[in-house]
Model the fold of this input.
Amino acid sequence: MDILVVGGTGTIGTAVVSNLQHDHNVIIAGHSSGEVQVDLADPSSINRLYQSVGIVDAVVSCAGEAAFGGLEELTDEDFDVSLSNKLMGQVKLVRQGIDAVRDGGVFTLTSGVLSQEPIEGSAAISLVNAGLEGFVRAAAIELPRDLRINVVSPPWVEETLDEMGADFSPSLPAATVADAYRASLDGNQTGTTIDARNV
Done:
C-alpha cells in the first residue's frame, strides 16, 4: 500500500512510520521536515500536499496542535488554534483527500484519551479530541467508494512525558501506540475510535 503519514516526523508519527515502512510504501509529511511539508491550518497547503503526493491507499494523520492550560488561563486564541489546527486541520485532510485515496482506502486520524478522560488543563484538547471522534462516526456513514475512516485515541506517550518531565498514568511507548494505527489500516472497521490501550 501507498500510505501518506502526516506528522510522520513527530513522536507518534515516527513510530507509525517505523511500524509500517517494512510492509508498505510510506510517504512522510511534516510541518517543516519530511519528504513533503504541510501546514494543517492552511487549506491551500493541504491541497498542495495531495497534488505533490498523488493517489494513495491510505492517509494517516498523527499531527495537530492543541493548547493545554487552565480553563481561566486559556484565551480565545488558544481555542482558535486548537480548533483550526488539530480539529479542522484533520477534517480538511479528509475532505480534501477523498479524491486522493483509492477505492476501499482508509483515513486514520488522531484524537486522544482526554476526550473521554479529561484532566485539569485539558478543556481545549478534550473539546478537539471529542469533536474528531464525532466527526469520524458521522463521516464514515457518507464516505464514497467503500472508503473507511477511523480515529486512534492514544493515552499519554512515554517519550513525551519524559521530555516534559511529567508522570501521567496510564502511558504507553510510542511503538505500542503505533500498533493501533496498523489495526485501523489492516482491519475492516470504520467510524471507530481505536483506544491504543486496548490493541
Notes: The chain has a mean pLDDT of 95. Helices lie at 11-20, 43-53, 76-95, 123-142, 158-164, 174-186.
